[in-house]
Amino acid sequence: MKSNPTPARDRAVVIGASMAGLLAARVLADHYTEVILVDRDQLTGGHEPRRGVPQGRHIHSVLGRGDEILAELFPGIRDDFAAAGAASARIAGEVRFINAYGVLPRVEVTTPSICATRPLIEDVVRERVLADPAVELRDNTDAAGVMVDGGGRIRGVRLVARDDHRDLPLSADLVVDASGRSGRSVAWLDGLGHGRPPEDIVHSNMGYATRRYRLAGSTGRDQFIVVAARPDRPIGMAAGVVENDSWVVTLFGYGSHQPSGAEEDFLPQLEAIAPRDLFAAVLGGQPLGPVVTHRTPTSIRRNYQRMRTFPRGLIVFGDALCCFNPIYGQGITVAAQQSLVLRSWLESGSDDPRVFFRHAAPVVRGAWDIVSGADLSIPEVPGDRPLSVRVIGRYMSRLQAAAVGDPVVGHAYLRVLNLLDRPTALMRPAIAARVLRPGAAVRALAPTDPQPTAVGA
Ligand SMILES: Cc1cc2nc3c(=O)[nH]c(=O)nc-3n(C[C@H](O)[C@H](O)[C@H](O)COP(=O)(O)OP(=O)(O)OC[C@H]3O[C@@H](n4cnc5c(N)ncnc54)[C@H](O)[C@@H]3O)c2cc1C
Questions:
Q1: What is the arithmetic mean of pLDDT over 139-168?
Q2: For the chain, counts of helices (H) and of strands (E)
């Protein structure tokens, strides 16, 4: 990145102390004297779900690349996770990933990944971030707007205490909006006359229903089991071991196939798609709470790099920049990847947010292409499917079939799903030749029975 005169770096303010905000704060603390993390929730720890992060009740996985970046930014954090009660799983030695054609091969793609509830993951990371004396948390505080100087530069945030509604203006040399999918900056920038960022939107209309269980029975070596949705059956499930020897079990479905969320429907809906060993272990097991639901109507990519004007002193980060249909578990990992872009931007001395957005765009695009391509393969998801999308969709279907029987293709596919490689890695001649050979094509045209029986492979 190109270097400019070094901007003042006394104070940075991060709006949102969830995963993206925490990762941003970790990187900012190496460059700013003071980093203030603001969140409207009261952040008491205790590994409990909270209001500002309703998705925290549902299954969360950290992909291979995300796990690598966490270990780099927070040396020794794997020990912290273990000490807090998290388990871990080798990808894919202890992860059973079932697609339309069977179980992906058990090739190792990275170091073991964290298996824990979302609140535990967030609490452990927050503890590490707040251990840095440069970082201060102001919770129970709303960011209500930004402050601007006469030259149009963002100079801080207008905070409001949630308990007594006091106005608390806070000046800053840089404001990072990590306020989640609603993305406060969209309205703030519009109000300042910059307009709105061009957005890409996919109406995936994804629904989740989740229940926590103590299992009675074994799933073999597998700590995490996924049954992917597919065009002819747009439902799936994911289940994984978490702290306290319990499992989070999630059903998901597109549009009219969303799980109902009714308690009496959960087991029948699970039985229709879960591998038999897992279903038996759930059936004989003990529910540890109610069924909870969540809807994610859209994936939204906000192309701030394409805005004609953008004020200095502000960047947008995490889900506020791009939020995904969650079934590929990408959000935390993409935020972690953005934190490396933020670090390079700060190291370059740049003060121009558009440089940050330009470098963040390809990172976001890698994950966006995976999930939007998968969404558009589902007939019920509305949206244009130009020839290029249809051709790639057909190729990806053949690749998924080939991946089941061919460890080389399986390895390449798992690395891309874990954001360790870009999707273009799947188009390399060596992989394409294996995907397009006649045997792979035959398998691609013959998806397996809707009831996945290939357990414990
Ligand atoms: C159902 C579901 C399942 C998911 N599963 C996975 C998964 O398996 N793996 C994965 O990597 N990702 C997953 N995600 C995505 C993941 O949760 C997010 O990508 C991740 O939390 C990073 O988001 P964030 O920090 O940008 O925003 P959020 O986590 O949404 O946090 C936003 C924060 O901003 C605060 N805030 C908002 N407005 C204000 C304001 N005005 N003032 C002060 N504070 C404010 C909120 O209280 C909150 O703490 C899932 C998402 C959903 C919906």
A1: 97
A2: 13, 21
Q: Residue 214 and residue 194: Cα distance in Å, rounded?
A: 52
- Residue 350 lies inside a defined structural domain of this protein: yes
Residue 436 covered by a domain: no
Residue 59, CA distances (Å) to 64, 147, 238, 408, 443 in order: 16, 37, 7, 29, 31
Which of 248, 281, 296 is where one domain is finished?
296
Task: Determine, yes or no, domain membership for 317.
Answer: yes
139: which residues sit within 8 A by CB, 6+ positions away?
17, 38, 39, 40, 41, 42, 43
**Residue 386: other Cβ atoms inside 10 A:** 8
Domain boundary among 319, 347, 371: 371
Ligand 1 atom 12: residue of nearest CA: 331
Model pLDDT, residue 9: 95
- Tokens representing residue 155 in the block: 């100079």
Range of the domain at 232: 206-296
Q: Is the CB of 332 under 6 A from ligand 1?
A: yes
Residue 52 CA to ligand 1 center (angstroms) comes to: 8
Q: How many domains does the chain have?
A: 2
- Farthest CA pair distance, the chain: 69
Whether the CB of 61 sits within 6 Å of ligand 1: yes
Q: Is the CB of 50 under 6 A from ligand 1?
A: no
Take atom 53 of ligand 1 and give the residue whose Cα is closest.
Answer: 55
In a domain, 355, yes or no: yes
Give, in order, the Cα–Cα distances in Å from 165 to each of 115, 140, 365.
Answer: 39, 10, 39
pLDDT of the residue at 46: 87
Q: Whose CA is nearest to atom 47 of ligand 1?
A: 52
Q: Model confidence over 96-120: pLDDT tens digits?
A: 999 999 999 999 999 899 999 999 9
* Closest residue to atom 46 of ligand 1, CA basis: 52
Same domain, 134 and 283: no
Identify whether residues 196 and 221 lie together within a single domain. no
- Two tokens at 427? 């188009």
